[in-house]
Specification:
The chain is mainly α. It has helices at residues 5-10, 18-38, 40-47, 55-61, 63-85, 95-116, 129-140, 147-158, 164-178, 180-183, 195-215, 221-231, 241-256, 258-261.
Length: 278
């Protein structure tokens, strides 16, 4: 537990930390992917061809988490990092949010696939339990790790100056633009995706996960689960209809959570909550 106000100050992450967080995040990701875009032969000869499972791609994806650890470590030391990481253990949320994660997200992908017309025509892509397990494992240790940065650090800092709905829009735009180099590079999961629908989809997802994040009192685990369910490898290919449906879902979720989305009431603004500090 904290003992005095000086200790509280020690574990408070400055709002100005958002800028170095974003700089580190973009520099790491855009440098790696940018080198593959502009120097493909050189990078391939040294590191091998880039794919969604390549270690260099993992490093690019991990940049928000890397930036978050650096920012928290610089501001609050090892104990601060330990306390910040304890937010990964916060699992409590409402039944409605868990229902949305477990039932709502699959329903969106299934409905999107039905609208696309490939729900019963696309073959199951995994031929063995081992390949399915490995796909689940890679999904779990890749995209969800981003949330250590986006919702772990960036969102609380943004909510100090903006209501959750505006913080969600701002972070959604940043989140989408951060992905941009992956759309310009063959071998990545985004290679065949259209960027414009993804851009608006990222904003919609940012709105949804912001409501979820504040509803769970700053949990990092719940947004990580949300990210995992979005990337679940067993969902049918529903693009771009899944994006359209997530936009609709974002409108409804914003409406049902309008009291907290349009005011700062209930907005999580601390990277290291008081109750989790040593």
């Amino acid at each position: 537990m904290l003992k005095n106000s000086s200790e509280i100050g020690r574990f408070k992450i400055s709002t100005r930390s958002l800028m170095p967080f974003l700089l580190i995040t973009f520099i790491v990701t855009w440098t790696i992917l940018g080198l593959y875009i502009f120097l493909p032969n050189k990078m391939t000869s040294i590191f091998g061809k880039i794919t969604g499972d390549h270690p260099m791609f993992f490093l690019a994806v991990y940049s928000p988490a890397i930036a978050a650890i650096i920012v928290v470590l610089h501001s609050s030391g090892i104990k601060g990092v330990q306390s910040y990481l304890r937010r990964v253990l916060i699992w409590r949320s409402t039944k409605s949010w868990y229902t949305f994660l477990i039932l709502g997200i699959p329903l969106i992908f299934i409905s999107g696939s039905a609208l696309k017309g490939n729900l019963f025509t696309e073959p199951f892509q995994f031929s063995s339990f081992h390949s399915l397990f490995m796909a689940f494992l890679l999904t779990a240790i890749k995209g969800p790790v981003e949330e250590l940065g986006w919702r772990g650090v960036a969102l609380p800092l943004l909510q100090r100056n903006f209501t959750p709905i505006w913080a969600a829009f701002i972070l959604g735009i940043i989140w989408a633009i951060w992905h941009l180099p992956a759309f310009l590079l063959s071998g990545t999961p985004q290679e065949f995706w259209p960027f414009i629908p993804f851009f608006f989809g990222a904003i919609a997802l940012s709105v949804i996960v912001t409501a979820l994040f504040n509803g769970s009192k700053g949990s990092i685990l719940i947004p990580m689960l949300f990210h995992f369910f979005l990337n679940n490898p067993i969902w049918p290919n529903a693009q771009p209809y899944d994006i359209y449906l997530f936009v609709v879902a974002a409108f409804f979720i914003t409406w049902f959570n309008r009291k907290t989305m349009f005011t700062k009431e209930g907005a999580v603004t601390r990277v290291i909550p008081f109750g989790l500090t040593p």
